[in-house]
Design goal:
This protein is α/β, with parallel strands linked by helices. It has a single domain (22-161), classed as Glutaredoxin. It is built from 5 helices and 7 strands. It holds the Pfam family ATP-synt_10.
Length: 173
C-alpha cells in the first residue's frame, strides 16, 4: 500500500492521489500489482468485496468496455477481495473457480482476486460500505482521476466516459 513518510498507515484511495498498491492474482494465475502493472494510459479498476456487488460492477464496466473496446490504451480490471483469512481458503477457491468459469479466457488477466484481510483492505481504500462496488479511473501514472461507488447512473456513466475520453485526447494528438 502507498504510505507517507509521516505515517506507516496506508493512504486511502482519494481523487488526485496515487491508487494504493493492490496485489492480486489474475484468473490466469499471473500476479498483478496495480497500479504498476496496469496496462494502458487509462485504467478502470472496479473493486468489489461481496459477490452481490457484481451487478453494480457490471453496470460501470460493461458500458466502459463497450466504449473503449477497440482502444489498446485502455485497460479494465475487476478486483474481488476474497479475504482468505475471514472466509477460509476453500470458499475463496470456490469463488475463484466460479469467476473463471463465467469469464471468457481472453479476459482472465483482467479479473483479479485479492486474498487480503477484508478489514485491512477496506481501511486502505477508505471503503465505508463493502456491499457496494467502488470504481476508480486511473491515468497512466496510477493517479485516481475519477471515482464513484454503487450502481451506475446515466450521469455517472457520462462523467466516467467523458473523463476517460478527455484523458485520451492529448495522447491522440
Amino acid at each position: 500500500m502507498n504510505r507517507t513518510a509521516a505515517t506507516p498507515e496506508p493512504v486511502p484511495a482519494a481523487l488526485g492521489r496515487t491508487f494504493p498498491t493492490l496485489m492480486a492474482t489474475s484468473l490466469s494465475g499471473r500476479v498483478v500489482t496495480l497500479p504498476d502493472d496496469a496496462g494502458g494510459d487509462v485504467s478502470l479498476v472496479v473493486l468489489v468485496f461481496l459477490e452481490s456487488a457484481g451487478p453494480m460492477a457490471e453496470s460501470w464496466s460493461g458500458p466502459f468496455i463497450g466504449a473503449f473496446t477497440e482502444n489498446p490504451r485502455v485497460a479494465t480490471y475487476l478486483a474481488l477481495v476474497v479475504g482468505d483469512s475471514l472466509i477460509g481458503r476453500s470458499l475463496a477457491d470456490s469463488i475463484r473457480q466460479g469467476l473463471a468459469g463465467g469469464t471468457p479466457p481472453a479476459k482472465h488477466d483482467q479479473v483479479l482476486t485479492i486474498p487480503e484481510d477484508i478489514e485491512r483492505c477496506r481501511r486502505a481504500y477508505g471503503i465505508e460500505d463493502p456491499s457496494l462496488a467502488y470504481i476508480y479511473l486511473l491515468d497512466g501514472r496510477g493517479i485516481i482521476r475519477w471515482m464513484e461507488k454503487g450502481n451506475a447512473t446515466p450521469e455517472g456513466l457520462a462523467a466516467l466516459l467523458d473523463t476517460a475520453g478527455a484523458m485520451l485526447e492529448p495522447l491522440l494528438a
